[in-house]
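pls ignore typos typing on phone
DGJ + seq
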Amino acid sequence: MSDLLRLDGGGETLLLQTRTGPPRLAYWGERLPLTLDEAALAILAERAVSHGMLDGGEGLGLFPEAGQGFTGHPAFECHRDDGGFVTQLAPVEATQGVDSATIRLADAAAGVEVVLTVAMDAETGVAAFSSRIGNLGAAPLHLDWVAAAALPATHDEALVFDGRWAREFHTVRQRIATGLVVKENRTGRTSHHSPPFMVLGEPGFGEDHGEVVGLHFAWSGDHRLLVERLRDGRLQVQAGELFWPGEMTLAAGETYETPRLYATRSGGGLNGLSARFHPFVRRRILGDRLTAKPRPVNFNTWEAVYFRHEMEELKALADAAAAVGAERYVLDDGWFKGRPNDTKGLGDWTADPVKYPNGLGPLVDHVRGLGLEFGLWVEPEMANADSDLLRAHPDWILGVAGRDQPLGRGQYVLDLTRPEVSDHIFACISALLSDHAIGYLKWDMNRDLTHPASAGRPASHNQTRAVYALIDRIRAAHPGVEIESCASGGGRADYEILRRTDRIWTSDCNDPIERQQIQRGFSIFFPPEVMGAHVAAAVNHTTGRRTSLDLRALTALFGHFGIEADVRAFSEAELTALRDWIEVYKAHRALIHHGQIVRQTYADPAAVATMVVDETGALASFAQLDTATYASPDPLRLVGLDLDGLYRVRLLNPPRPPSSGMKFAPALTSGEVVEATGRLIETMGLPLPILRAGGIAVFHLERIGQV
Ligand code: DGJ
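k done
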């Protein structure tokens, strides 16, 4: 019988060696022929063992254990109250499915069973790794660390995300020279500063070149992502949930299964990874929920009025939003009982009787009467200390008896692991959805979990699962409702939350200069249609920077477009421009939301360029974020087009007046049209206008044929 399990997908082959020892990844690369020379594979997999190491060397399998003599970070750590902590798992059974493989391991002495699952998406080649631990013993088994898998890495340049509120998805690169690089999240949400994504690639890998592996641990709670240079020079990467001390204990017969670690490989740099992850998200994570529905232009009230909810003003905003082309009106924070600011009211999910004496109905009717969908902001997991809910049920929060916990935005986290709490919140949200024609929920989450305990025990894991269960329950009861995942901006962005939501609020920073960077980072793992992107006021509320309407709108164009400003204060010129850009968005949203993002490389570090392309054509954006380094811009050499495709190219926003900043303005920058092949455009590039800091140029490339 073959020693190998085999998975094929997206032009890739993944081989697992299973039956003769600890399971390990034997091959992961371009697709192999159906007939394999297993003897040759075995010989090629051998590795010399040096003096100073254990006699048998250290196996780096899919699930390395200290008990097998592995001295790196083990994939699995557990202990029992009697002091037992060593495991020596041996394969029991390996099962080959069509697109997945499972390997069952057991250690009778330790009373532990492990089932490793590897699945591979046939279309995209995205693999999913997970592990399930079973307690076969009679005594409790305490789990200290369980990786979804340990994966060997060929290359040592790591790209991870860093960030903070209003500055998410910034990439940081580092070489893994020695020891461990660990990214941990202890905030109880996916986090702004340490979201669970990593790329490992050959040194200097870029958007379009270099062999890379992209990894995403799909979990919206605490996690640890690590990459380690082992003492013999090999590299491993692991991801798993981060348990609080004593959090995960299995009683006899109980099991724990890790969230999935998604991983994919590409020889074509970061764009190559996106070309696999984006269709995977579309088909396997979002499913077909919204494929047929164009994403409506959102209007969100937050930066327009904040907590100042006054019926006539809210209606006037709806009128103004509809007049520029908005298709959905989202009533943000401030609408519910006793909510003059962010210190009170959270948890009391009925309309404020002062702001809404006749309930939400009149506003919903007005908005719907304009032909817009109505959306509503909620933060179901939280309650202010100053709320009727917590006055009635002060014990309904996560916390440790006898311990103070710091407040975040004046609020606590509700203990959704308690059925009566979840039931109550479900009833509140469900009543809102039943009572009103609400088609969209903006589901916010605005504080870290600092004392995530329930009934005296750590409960971060259970709380995360309970949040999923609550959303699932709401979806099941109200299947037509779309949900936006928000956590103080982009603090909850991962594939597991996206499995049950429809888009992500990328950041509370709507400044397009910042957004160009934030959106670029976000776009590595997420497709554009789930990226909430809004046009805000000219002077940005988080940065104080003034930007042009064109830059704001054309930055939002590459995501799920929205408006978040008091548009009544816009000048006539701004309103006209906004209306026009919304028309452009509507005309091209099929391309933007089904096409492939290809981030462009441009020599000037003060500029950011990107493109979205499909079989009908492309939109390409060049944003000059800071003063240009050189006097005259290099042409924009666009990669990612069909080289033999013929494109009709037009600059959508020629500078006004045409020659501004230029003694000579190239014809294309004055709005003239050129027809050229993808090959010419990639090799010669598109002439750019000279742009000041904050300028932007967006080209439409209509595909008109083939040469
Ligand atoms: C944080 C969100 O990110 C904002 O967009 C807004 O909804 C506020 N919360 C409301 O409190």
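The two ends are 51 Å apart (CA to CA). The pocket of DGJ is lined by residues 302, 332-333, 342, 377, 444, 446, 486, 488-489, 505, 508 (CB under 6 Å). more later
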